Amino acid sequence: MTGRQRDKVVAARAERLLADQLSAEAYAAYFEAQMRCGGMRRLLSAGCLWLARAGTVLTGLVCGVGPIATAPAGDQDRHVALRVLIVDDSRKFRDAAAELLAEMGLEVLDAVADADQALAAVAHRRPDGILLDINLPGLDGFAVAGSLAAVCPAARIVLTSAELDRVPANILQSCAAVAFVPKQELAVADLGALFAG
User: Which of 104, 111, 136, 146 meets the CB 3.0–4.6 Å disulfide criterion with 86?
Assistant: First the structure.
C-alpha cells in the first residue's frame, strides 16, 4: 500500500468515526485497549482519528507518523507513547536504557548493537526517537546519526556517551542530532521532551 493509499484509508476511517461524534475520552479508551493488546496498526489509525477530532490538521505520512500542522498542546501526549530505538554496543546499557525509557513512559521499539542493525530497524519500524551511543564499533555515532536521519528524517536523534560531557551544537546540527545527553545524566534528563520535540 502506498503512502497516498494509506492516507485515504485513514481519512475514510476518520470521517466515519467523526460522523459518530465520539468523545476524546472514547478515543483515549480505545488507544489504551489497543496498546494493551498490541494492535499498533489500529492504534496508529485511531491516533490519526483522535488528533483529527481534537482539531488538528494531518498531512502525509512520514516515517510512520502523520506530521501535525497544528496541534493542541499536550493532550494527546498522555495517550500515545513515543517509540524509541536504542543503539549501543553494550548489552548491559541497552537493557538499562530500555528499563529507564519504559519508566519514563516511552515505548522501546527495539535495542540494537551497531549501525547495520540500527539502519535495518529504522527502515522497518520507523521510530519517533533514537537514543544513539557515539562510541559504536565501526562507524561512530555521528556518522550513524546522519545515515539514520536520511532513512527516517522524522525521528529525533539523541546522542549519548559515557566518555564525553558535551558535544558542540554545530556538530550536533551537522549530524542531524537534536541533543546530546551524557549517559550519567540520562536518568534525570527529560528524554520524553527531547524525543517529542
Answer: 111
Single residue among 16, 46, 75 that ends a domain in this structure: 75
Query: What is the rounded CA–CA span in Å between residue 70 and residue 74?
Result: 12
Provide the whole-model pTM. 0.61
Query: Coil, strand or helix: which one is 110?
Result: strand
**Residue 158: strand, helix, or coil:** strand
Residues 88 and 77: beta-carbon distance below 8 Å: no
CA distance 98 to 76: 23
Q: How many domains does the chain have?
A: 2
**How far is Cα 146 from Cα 141, in angstroms, rounded to an integer?**
9
Give the containing element (helix H, strand E) for 129.
Answer: strand 129-133
Closest by CA to 160, choosing from 120, 126, 194, is 194
Give the DSSP per-residue string, 88-156: -S-HHHHHHHHHHHHHTT-EEEEEESSHHHHHHHHHHH--SEEEEES--SSS-HHHHHHHHHHH-TTSE
- Out of 19-33, 55-69, 132-146, 161-175, which region has the weakest mean confidence (pLDDT)? 55-69
Is pLDDT at 36 greater than 50 in this prediction?
Answer: no
- Whether the Cβ atoms of residue 89 and residue 112 lie closer than 8 Å to each other: no
Query: E strand or H helix at 71, and its extent?
Result: none
User: What pLDDT is attached to residue 159?
Assistant: 97
